[in-house]
Amino acid sequence: SGTAKINQAVPNCIFENDSCGIIVNACATDQGIHKISAGADVTICHGDTTTLMASGGSKFVWQPQISITNPQSATVSVWPTTTTKYIVSGINVNDCPGTDTVLVTVQPLPELITEDSLQVCSGQSLQLLVTGALLYSWRPAVLLQNPESSQPVARPLVSTHFKVKGVNAWGCSSEDSVWVEVVEKRTFSMEPISPLCPLESVT
Predict the structure, then answer these.
(1) Could you read off the pLDDT of 136-182 as tens digits, one per residue?
(2) Separation of alpha carbons 19 and 8, rounded Å
(3) Burial class (CB in 10 A: 0-12, 13-18, 19+), 91
(4) What is the spatial distance between Cα 55 and Cα 39, in angstroms, rounded to a whole number?
(5) Of 35, 84, 106, 154, which residue is 20 to 30 A from 77 by alpha carbon distance?
């Protein structure tokens, strides 16, 4: 603040001595030397929280003051639901004001699509199906052929809740589930005697 003089031979020099050279605005000269920094841009998944950290001074204030903890602190946690540019202002070591910005990009979660419930006859297998992501992981994996496929084959011994996790191109993940009910085969007193399962007909 105020005015000061610098030595033309030493650009970073800020003095109050006439022998230093011409009179300049001390804060204008100082901006290139001690800058307020908001840190590097960040990418998060929808619903996640990230930490922002200001440096280069004190008396920080962050804007906008939404989805943020303690906006008058150097270190804050933010959880925006849409891509947001945060601005931090502060006073540097030479009592000069400064600002900086950091962009928090919010990527969407994958929207998984599966069947809510299915039925299968005891001892038989069925194919599960999921769409909406790039990579998949089903569990319990022990009851599945290729549990990292979008179309794994399941052969449960008892009714089972199968869960699937999907990851999209941005590394964001979400989960869904499929209830598979195992039913016993039913027989009828007619010739020929034929097992009858859901969705089957007698021939």
Answers:
(1) 999 999 999 999 999 999 999 999 999 999 999 999 999 999 999 99
(2) 11
(3) middle
(4) 8
(5) 35
